[in-house]
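Predict structure. Chain length: 146.
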Amino acid sequence: MPRIKYNNSDVALIARMMRAEAEGEGRLGMLMVGNVIVNRVKANCLDFEGLRSVPDVIYQVQGGNFSFEAVQKGNVFYNRARGVEKRLAKQVLNYWRQHPSKFALWYFNPYGECPSTWYGQPFTGQFKQHCYYEPQANTCASVYRW
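Prediction complete.
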């Protein structure tokens, strides 16, 4: 049973985002970015309340800008999804979760060390250049459910 409902268009959209945000971090880095996207669809709390689909998450606007820099700047995001990223996207949608992105709702690539909190939420770990942050259980319990 998949973690969220999805269709082929969702697979391609997540695949494009994974590549645009983390291609330089290899397959594992791309899986972690994809996991954050799925977590945001599941969360329905904090900044992600009312987001019920992959496009809702990918194209979310906060403070006048898209939530994901890759959508804002274009770059690789607007290229066609490739087979390898589509396979990775399906893994994330169906079952894949791993620390530090397992329950993460945020990630970013800082110019220095990872801060201990991001948007008031605790740092859970780093993979290559990306820092991951998950919500406190009392602020977003839904992200901790399968």
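Summary: The chain has a mean pLDDT of 93.
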